[in-house]
Specification:
This protein is an alpha+beta fold and 251 residues long. The chain has two helices and ten strands. Strand 7 (184-189) and strand 8 (192-197) form a beta hairpin. The two termini are 15 Å apart.
Length: 251
């Protein structure tokens, strides 16, 4: 399924955590201890420059082999697929027969992206989620007239999720991996725009730990807001189509 390009918008959505700084510190410690041992040996011989280059390279190789597992062993991958809220429509819920907005740009700071926005009436969904196929085909929304049995309006889509980051992740590096989002995607964290991605067939990564908007601690919620415009036209809007096949839309 992940190898099929037309379906790559529907894999899992993980949160990855890697204590990189701690790992680098461990690597430096191993590196220092090995070199210090070699230096002490040369001192007992009465010189600091007699360590052969070949032996030094062997020591460095051992150091790297020890350090790399220390970095890789502590990585965590957590699922981020559950607990989402979803709404179809730019600033209000779109009806089944409504046409997509002529101008799909939500703006730099739309209300839906703000931390305190009330999304109580939004639908609860889990990922992967196709926000277009959930709506029935519409004859009224078809711009040039059609049978109404196959035309699905390309409405813009919103997703929101509340989550917490433990306080002990303070020195860690963590990011979100979007393995698929169709198509033009914008991401806000606690009301701060942190990423955008304009291709529905490639994954992308959003780093969170270095964002000034992130909140740490079990009593501090974070809100991730994701806006998706599934239209594939150069200018967006209802007058521009996408592929010659059904590509879907969502996360």
């Amino acid at each position: 399924m992940r190898m099929c390009m037309c379906m790559c918008m529907y894999p899992t959505f993980p949160l990855c955590k890697h204590p990189l700084r701690a790992g680098r510190k461990a690597a430096r410690t191993l590196h220092t201890s090995v070199l210090r041992g070699d230096a002490d040996t040369t001192r007992r011989r009465g010189a600091l420059s007699v360590l052969p280059i070949r032996r030094f390279r062997r020591s460095m190789s051992r150091t790297l082999l020890l350090a790399l597992p220390a970095l890789a062993a502590t990585r965590e991958v957590l699922s981020f697929d559950f607990g989402w809220k979803h709404r179809t429509g730019l600033h209000t819920k779109a009806s089944a027969d409504a046409q997509p907005p002529a101008n799909p740009d939500p703006g730099r700071l739309p209300d839906e992206s703000k931390f305190n926005y009330d999304a109580a009436d939004w639908e609860e969904v889990s990922l992967p989620h196709d926000g277009l196929i959930a709506n029935a085909p519409s004859e009224k929304a078809c711009p040039d007239g059609c049978s109404g049995k196959s035309f699905i309006p390309r409405h813009v889509l919103w997703y929101r999720k509340h989550f917490m980051i433990p306080a002990d992740w303070k020195r860690d590096v963590f990011w979100l991996d979007f393995e698929g989002a169709f198509r033009n995607t914008t991401v806000w964290l606690n009301g701060v725009r942190i990423a955008s991605h304009a291709c529905g067939y490639t994954p992308f990564r959003v780093r969170l730990d270095n964002s000034t908007a992130i909140r740490l601690g079990n009593s501090s919620y974070n809100v991730l807001a994701v806006y998706v415009d599934p239209d594939n036209g150069d200018q967006g809007g209802r007058a521009h189509g996408s592929g010659w096949w059904y590509e879907g839309g969502g996360l």
